[in-house]
Amino acid sequence: IIALPSVGKSTLISVISNAKPKIADYPFTTLSPNLGVVKVEDTDFVVADIPGLIEGASAGKGLGHDFLKHIERCGIILHMMDINDSNFVKSYKIINEELKKYSSKLSEKEQIVVFNKIDSVDDEYVKLAEKEFKKSYPDIEIHAISAASHKGVKELLYLLKDRIISWRNTHETHVTIEDSDKRIVFRPHLENEEMYWSCHKEK
């Protein structure tokens, strides 16, 4: 999950997974990536809450290099924006430019674009915001959610599940026994690794 600071990444990961990030109403609450395990039906995956990126991150500003290198390990990027940001189109562009400046491979990764904090506005404003965004990016689908109230989160999780399954099917890796002995395994620091956020489709 990537975004500018204070967009709601930590709130989302605390809702969909077993991660317990620090959440506060000031910038750079997250100083290192938080990892959480998510389970949707029979599919599980790890979500990483990447500390807020800022303009100049690709040049190291705001510990940008430390943050951006974690994104290289991710299969799919969830790009979150605050719907209350009056310059959300510019914010989206800034983050993507920083990804491209740091690595062309980052800019080529699949992105799921999300408007967060829709609980703070009415439905008409959400439609207007989506329309404004599509003036600059007509081919990009927007997913509107409220991490705080959980509105739209279930639908987002099923979308993530489908995209991750598709990504895994096209990015299979084969590890030999010799290679597996040399692998470095990164494990999230979780209070309870057996606790999962799960959801099921309504019939």
Describe the structure.
Residues 26-30, 54-65 and 174-198 have low confidence and may be disordered. A 3-stranded parallel beta sheet has the order 3-4-5, sandwiched between helices. With 203 residues, the chain is an alpha/beta fold. The chain contains 7 helices and 5 strands; from the N terminus they run αββαβααβαβαα.
How are the SSEs placed, and which strands pair?
Blueprint: H1 9-16, E1 34-40, E2 43-49, H2 64-71, E3 76-82, H3 88-102, H4 104-107, E4 110-116, H5 123-136, E5 142-144, H6 153-170, H7 177-180
Summarize the structure.
With 203 residues, the chain is of the alpha/beta class. The protein has 7 helices and 5 strands, in the order H-E-E-H-E-H-H-E-H-E-H-H. The relative contact order is 0.18.
| SS-based class | alpha/beta
Uncertain parts: 26-30, 54-65, 174-198
Strand content bin: 15-25%
- Figure out the total of helices: 7
- Walk across the major sheet and give the strand order: 3-4-5
C-alpha Rg, in Å? 17 Å
Helix content: 25-40%
The residue-averaged pLDDT reads 76
What is the approximate shape? globular
Question: Largest sheet, described in full?
Answer: 3 strands, parallel
Distance between the termini: 30 Å
What order do the SSEs take from the amino end to the carboxyl end, as H and E? HEEHEHHEHEHH
- Number of DSSP E strands: 5
